[in-house]
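Teaching assistant's notes for section 4

Start the section by putting this record on the projector. Ask students to predict, before seeing the second block, whether DUF4331 family protein will look compact or extended. Collect guesses on the board.
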Amino acid sequence: MKKTKMILGLSLVAVSGLILVAADHVDAPAVTGNAADITDLYTFQGQDTNNLAFAVNTQGLLSPNATAAATFNENVMIEINIDNTGDNIEDLVIQAIKRDDKMYFFGPYAPTSTGTSSSIKTIAASGSVTISSYGATPLIAEKNGMKFFAGPRDDPFFFDLGQFKAILGGTASGFKNPGTDTFAGTNVLSLVVEVPKTMLGTSSKINVWAETKKKQ
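Reveal the predicted structure now:
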């Protein structure tokens, strides 16, 4: 199953025990607001300290009225790339693709190719989860030490856009404490997978980035 890159999420370095995040809520018109639009990538230690959690949020700025109709796209794969050797090339990938009412996960495994094109190694299937509905109790699946979730969530990213614009315009010298959460009341579609650290190699530091890739 061949894929072509649609949009590349921001890369970040994840060190065990730290919470790290990259955010990008405004993209080119071709991807803004659709299933290929990545807003945030979070990597953090799980409640079980032997695990690392990855969360990819897409389709930002969803109003409560629009959230119930928002869906993952069966032709768009979400791919989490993991570099555990420090060369900024993915050594492992975790892939997720929607089919009907479920999200199917593959990996982490070493990809057969790197860069903007990917294929899914079906024998590396790691689990699946029924996609949660808006307003319903979140559905979480577990298999082989991994945990999986897919569905709508409140946007966890905090940013005071109005104050940021004031700083850029020279009418303010810094952010307020507390500020105003521009994203309060808006939602995203989240993909979350928790993985035992033993599946990610032996390095104490990894680089992580996310992509969405469209089926050709």
